[in-house]
Each structure stands twice: as structure tokens, then as C-alpha cells.
Specification:
Blueprint lengths: L4 E7 L2 E6 L5 E3 L3 H5 L6 E5 L2 E4 L5 E3 L2 E4 L2 E4 L2 H13 L1
Antiparallel strand pairs: 1-2, 1-5, 2-3, 4-5, 6-7, 7-8
């Protein structure tokens, strides 16, 4: 199931799971709780976003592209993201 996920978008007490083929699926859970069960392929790039590193189509400056979706990388998460992205 994790392989189908592009990215996760946090909204207070629920998370929208964005997948390649389906509409976003809302789940009543926090991003913090989800990080405990996600594989290492998922990395936080903002307080409200976690991306699947395997699904990144390009990185330009401080922006990640997952197909047509652009997600900026915040300074707080930049070092950790680029470290993980180089490994993949």
C-alpha cells in the first residue's frame, strides 16, 4: 500500500493521503502518528507534508515535484531531506 502513496498532507487531526491514481483519502490521524508506521522512503519536508522519496520526479532548488504537484522544502527539513534523497 505504501508504494501507491505520493505524499501525505497534514491538517490538524487528520491527514490527506495523496495517491497517483485515486482521489486523496482522508484519514483521522496525525502526521506524527503516521511517521511511526511509514517506511524510510517517506520524509518530512514541511510541518504539514511528508513525501515518498521514490515518487519524486524532480527537485529544483528548494522545490520537490511529484508529477505536476510542487511542494516547497522548508529550511527546517532541508538538510535531512537532501541527505535522504541522495541515498535513494
Amino acid at each position: 500500500m505504501f508504494d501507491d502513496i505520493l505524499y501525505l498532507e497534514g491538517h490538524d487531526d487528520y491527514v490527506k493521503i495523496h495517491m497517483k491514481v485515486k482521489k486523496p483519502v482522508p484519514v483521522r490521524m496525525t502526521l506524527k502518528k503516521l511517521t511511526e508506521i511509514l517506511t524510510p522512503d517517506f520524509i518530512r519536508v514541511q510541518r504539514s507534508y511528508i513525501v515518498n522519496v521514490k515518487k519524486i520526479t524532480s527537485v529544483k532548488g528548494k522545490s520537490i515535484f511529484l508529477g505536476d504537484t510542487e511542494i516547497p522544502i522548508r529550511n527546517l527539513y532541508e538538510t535531512e531531506f537532501f541527505k535522504a534523497f541522495k541515498i535513494k
